[in-house]
Specification:
Number of strands: 4
Radius of gyration: 11 Å
CATH superfamily: Glutaredoxin
Shape: globular
CATH class: Alpha Beta
CATH topology: Glutaredoxin
Number of domains: 1
Strand order of the largest sheet: 2-1-3-4
Distance between the termini: 9 Å
Strand content: 25-35%
Length: 74
């Protein structure tokens, strides 16, 4: 399972999402959207955005229970 976290510096929700995902054994890649204008256009107000195997799983404000429930369904 390949997991991407679209994030940005200074975003407390992004930091929380990173902490939640850090405990997983899956491969986690963190992508700072502010390094690419196309990513900013796509994800600006949506971060954090969790993508699993190329599909958006969850975005915005979420808690650990919701995240893990959605991961379990993938």
């Amino acid at each position: 399972m390949k997991i991407l976290l679209y994030s940005r510096r200074g975003c407390h929700l992004c930091e929380q999402a990173e902490d939640m995902l850090a405990c997983l054994a899956a491969e986690l890649t963190i992508v700072d959207i502010d390094t690419d204008v196309e990513l900013v256009a796509a994800f600006d107000t949506r971060v954090p955005v969790v993508e699993v195997d190329g599909r958006i799983l969850i975005e915005g404000r979420f808690d650990e229970r919701e995240l893990f429930a959605r991961l379990a369904r993938t």
